[in-house]
Design brief:
Length: 158
């Protein structure tokens, strides 16, 4: 869910530019504010996540981030859009620290390294195999058919 809230801006960038809502430069500032807020949030919220129960911290960040997405509509000035998207990025930063705290509570210290390494390797292998198999599969369907493929077919490979 956090990922979905973070990608909302990326999804609507093209229509915002095409309809003249924001020029490219202002959208760049808004996007930069989102990712700077996210980076600072991941760093500083780690300290907060150590002192607040993870399920509350995680849910609070997701609710606040979803609320900030409601302010996506044009605000009149780029200043307010940058402000709201920076706050959205900050709230996005609630997810990773609370997840780390939860995992450290569930997994014993001597097992964490092996489990984390296994997770990283499996995730990397899935991404590589997906990036190789998906284009081959779409190419085998033919050029025009690949663009007409329904999204659920593509998502089934995820």
């Amino acid at each position: 869910m956090y990922y979905t809230c973070r990608l909302a801006l990326s999804i609507v960038k093209k229509p915002l530019i095409d309809n003249g809502v924001y020029p490219v430069e202002e959208l760049g500032s808004i996007g930069a504010a989102l990712f700077y807020g996210y980076a600072f949030g991941k760093f500083f919220n780690g300290f907060l996540a150590d002192h607040i129960p993870p399920k509350i911290f995680f849910a609070l960040g997701l609710a606040l981030s979803a609320t900030m997405n409601l302010f996506m509509r044009p605000t009149g000035t780029v200043f307010f859009a940058v402000k709201f998207w920076a706050m959205n990025g900050w709230f996005q930063g609630f997810g990773a620290p609370s997840s780390v705290v939860s995992l450290s509570n569930w997994i014993a210290g001597h097992e964490r390294g092996a489990i984390t390494a296994f997770g990283v390797v499996v995730t990397s292998l899935v991404r590589v195999s997906r990036s190789i198999s998906l284009p081959l599969w779409l190419q085998s369907m033919g050029g025009n058919m690949a663009f007409g493929c329904q999204p659920r077919c593509v998502l089934s490979l995820h």
